[in-house]
Write a structure and sequence with these properties.
By secondary structure, this protein is of the alpha/beta class. The protein is built from 13 helices and 14 strands. Helices cover about 35% and strands about 15% of the residues.
Length: about 400
């Protein structure tokens, strides 16, 4: 559902872009001698021939959308018994309950940098795990950990190529080297899992990887327990979840808020940001139109996220580019009114159950904000349609594609 536009309005994501754009601290490191634990529990069960990378659940990616994808896929791979899998990670943080026929291979955590050069250590850890494993193929889900593994088939999940589109500043030579290493790894991988048609198309166009080496494995969304909206809060709010990356287009949302000074809603911004990023936001919102109306609320724990999304007047995703657009799916699953930019990849997710706008027009977004705030019938209609659409966003196809690919590559 498109919002009305002013006359003349024109028609129209990647950890490497800004380090960790959410500003999330990496989990604490335990300084200890290198060690690895391999556990299966039953000696007579089939030997796992493929490994799955769990490390995004244990590093700074756990505060980004990547963790939602990896966790959702991993949980379902652990539940199936047809293809034995060796799950790779760090010992502790968190501990994993992995039952036969699967097993785990864990390294004792070593000191690692939180941001600059973290990819060097992540790749080294991947190679160390490979040295201690007997698997024939490895599925790497952490972009920073992708590295060549001799005598093994290599599979990798690709979330987006946004940093390649936007570019990495010359002053960030180490990050640029890391991203170049990642792109080299993608070109050499045997199979690439793209999380959307958008990402798959970018891989073919920008990396010249044959489409025959790409599989599309879209994420699903877990429906939270159905609960009514909280009693009206003291102050209503719009919600933005994400970082300040250029592709997220937060500026147009701030401009739209500045045009809607008559609305009582404040804008709440959730996500881990670096202190300097928060300071920049505070400076950006010091104008008379925005002062006291924009608040950075920090990282939102998973147990609080659904209620925060559900109780918002609207969840806004103003992105210029996305690989999939997980906040759209999360908003639908929580039964929220979702407002997102008019991007094919986002529209494919929302399926007509959201308000859409031209991402270059703050005026168009302001119109959407006013409609969300003042039209109770629209609220009721879109919230109901959101839940219906969310039920269609399942993991079934991704799991089938992943397992079929595993079986095929192990037969080679």
């Amino acid at each position: 559902m498109a919002c009305p536009k002013e006359p003349g309005t024109p028609e129209l994501h990647g950890p490497w872009a800004t380090g960790y754009p959410s500003g999330a601290p990496a989990p604490p490191s335990r300084v200890a001698p290198e060690a690895a634990a391999i556990s299966s529990g039953h000696a007579n069960l089939p030997e796992p021939e493929i490994a799955f990378d769990l490390t995004p659940l244990q590093n700074a990616h756990r505060y980004r959308g990547i963790v939602t994808y990896v966790r959702g896929l991993a949980v379902r791979l652990m539940q199936q018994k047809d293809v034995p899998i060796e799950f790779w990670g760090w010992d502790g943080e968190p501990s994993f309950v992995i039952e036969p026929p699967h097993r785990k291979l864990l390294l004792t955590r070593i000191p690692m940098p939180r941001y600059r050069g973290a990819w060097l250590f992540a790749q080294l850890a991947t190679r160390r795990r490979a040295m201690k494993s007997r698997v024939k193929a490895v599925h790497v889900t952490d972009p920073e950990a992708l590295t060549a593994l001799p005598r093994r088939k290599l599979l990798a999940t690709v979330y987006d190529l946004i940093p390649l589109k936007q570019g990495i500043g010359r002053r960030r030579a180490l990050a640029r080297a890391g991203y170049d290493s990642y792109l080299k790894g993608l070109r050499k991988a045997d199979v690439l899992f793209a999380i959307s048609e958008q990402t798959a198309g970018d891989i073919v166009e920008m990396l010249r990887v044959p489409a025959s080496r790409i599989r599309i494995a879209k994420p699903g969304v877990d429906l939270p327990r159905s609960e009514p909206r909280t009693v009206r809060r003291a102050r209503q709010y719009f919600l933005y979840l994400g970082g300040p990356n250029p592709n997220k287009n937060l500026g147009v949302l701030l401009d739209a808020m500045a045009q809607c000074t008559e609305l009582e809603e404040e804008l709440r911004i959730g996500g881990y940001w670096l202190p300097k990023q928060v300071a920049a936001l505070e400076a950006q919102t010091s104008s008379a139109e925005l002062r006291g109306r924009v608040r950075h609320i920090g990282f939102v724990p998973e147990e609080e996220l659904t209620a925060l999304i559900r109780d918002a007047t609207a969840v806004i995703i103003p992105s210029l580019q996305e690989g999939f657009g997980l906040p759209v799916a999360e908003g639908l699953a929580a039964g929220a009114l979702v407002i997102h930019s008019r991007l094919p990849v986002l529209e494919a997710t929302s399926g007509g159950a959201a308000l859409v706008f031209d991402p270059t027009s703050a005026t168009a977004l302001a119109d959407c904000l006013r409609r969300a705030a003042h039209d109770p019938e629209l609220q009721k209609s879109l919230r109901g349609r959101a839940l219906e659409q969310a039920r269609q966003i399942t993991w079934d196809a991704a799991i089938k594609t992943t397992l079929t690919t595993y079986e095929a590559i192990l037969r080679e």
